[in-house]
Amino acid sequence: MKKPYRLIIVEDHTILREGLRALVGSDPELEVIGEASNGRDAVRRVEKLGPDLVLMDLSMPEMHGLEAIKEIKVRFPKTKILTLTVHKTEEYVYAALQAGADGYVLKDATHGELSLAMKSVLKGNQYLSPAISAKVIEGYLGGAKAPLENSAWDDTLTRRQREILKLIAEGHKNKEIADLLFISPKTVEKHRSNLMRKLNLHNVAAITAFAIEKGLVEP
Asked: How far apart are CA 198 and CA 10, in angstroms?
């Protein structure tokens, strides 16, 4: 009998993560070998466990799913990643695919669709949820690029600055951010000053509003 594909579930809501584990675990072709509640932990789990597939949420604390996808694909290119999210806008779809995601499924998908998507990407195919607008799919297949000029994920900020911006918007102080990212408070302050200058933001309220507008944190 063929060994089941090994899977990690990355989702910051415990009840959803447990539900996915039960749902996915009912398929004899799939085996859930680990879970993570944020992007940073997801990268660590992939490094430690070497799964065949990562089921990846996008909006999470500490490290956004898009950043986790990029890092996993750079370090572990053979690992398949299927995005499972509520976001259906062009910006998110394109950003996930450009980051390296092998598929994109919405959280209102049926069990059957999720199963089809997982097995499709595991076989080396790409999967896009039918619920995503035809315009988005046609644009991607036609080679169009995401409208990233005003995106929070463009080249304006470094990866570290994007991480710090998100943590500030979530209410973390400099010392807390330093502890989470394993850097010094002085380094946090330097990045904070630089990102505020680049984005022309002058206080925490402005940073938070920007992060919500760009979908980095939930309103």
From this structure: 31
Strands (E), the chain: 5-10, 30-36, 53-56, 80-85, 103-106, 127-128
Q: What is the pLDDT of residues 62-95, one digit of tens each?
A: 777 888 898 999 999 999 999 998 887 777 787 7
DSSP output for 177-198? HHHHHTS-HHHHHHHHHHHHHH
* Domains of the chain listed by start with CATH number: 5-141 (3.40.50.2300), 159-213 (1.10.10.10)
pLDDT tens digits, residue range 34-46? 999 998 899 999 9
Instruction: Sheet containing 5-10: give its strands across.
Output: 30-36, 5-10, 53-56, 80-85, 103-106, 127-128
d(CA 200, CA 210): 11
